[in-house]
Design goal:
CATH topology: TIM Barrel
Number of strands: 12
Largest sheet: 8 strands, parallel, barrel
Shape: globular
Order of helices and strands: EHEHEEHEHHEEEHEHEHHHHEHEH
CATH superfamily: Luciferase-like domain
Number of helices: 13
Length: 366
Amino acid sequence: MRLGVFSMPLHRPEKPYALALQEDREMVLLADKLGYGEVWIGEHFTSKAEQIPSAMLFLATLISETSQIRFGTGVVNLPHHHPGIVAGEAAMFDQLSGGRLMLGVGPGGLISDAEFFGETDMGERNRVALEYVNAIQALWAADGPFEITVNGMTLTNKSTHWPRHGLGAIPKPMQQPHPPIAMAMVSARSGAAFVCAERDFIPISANFVSEDDVIAQWQTYAEARDKAGKPADPDVWRLGRNILVTETDQEAQDIIADPDGDFAFYFRYLRSLRQMEDFEAMRDEPNEAMNARLDIPQAIQDCVIAGSAATVLARLTDLADRAGPFGTLLMAGQDWDETGRWPTSMRRLAEEVAPKLSQHVESLKG
């Protein structure tokens, strides 16, 4: 079992943009130093809380400063991009990083991004995302003249293909046939689980759904793999959780109980987005009132594993017993503060929890 980080990233909206970006870079550098195997960075255009409009551009600043960590886009919201640009930029990133790219893709879930790009129909975004990932793979596989029709566009080099001068050639990634492709699973019976199973993509269980939903996601994926006549290898499964390792259990409980603490802020932001129209009149309500209406205590209970190293290990061991073995545990990235609690938590997770958890997960494979 390996460790990774999945970061939207999510910051207090009042935090200066440059400082938020700096902290996100520090998180990746620390993860690399501690031996985390991978980091996934989200992409959004229209939210100050999670404003990295290009995960690849952000991650490219870290290639030369890291030694082993793999870089995942979590995710490129394909309907907001031209597929040819994504194919070219991803191929270049893979070459620059020495083959360390994992391309996470999706339809885009942030409502303000959808409005901004004029793509408010979720079903249509799902359709476009699948067409675009097909086009990206076809572009990477193309050798010679090609003509690819996708979402009403024609991508072609037939009139300008000149091998002697390299003209008309699409950039190719270092990893062949292409970098691993991943999709995030959000609902219990996520459609992404079926796509991942059929297409050999990496399935990622989101950190903001309950453990029961996470278990159901893997079962859905495994059933789809079995139906396709393919084995369901748990090593490919990325399991996301909100994890905080503290010195004592009481310290973690104090953070959880704070109506504007790290976890309350995190889930209040996420849940209010999904119910934005219903809570229009509550935008300026006190945190306690918003938390009650959005059932934030239940979200924290369902999605957060916090406490001393011993407590976190026990909770994660129990989850592994119920879910089965998994390949990578993804710790959700949080907004850093002056206390240093999150860098300390990352270190404790790597040094005090992960070795014993890995032994337990491996024992489940027998």
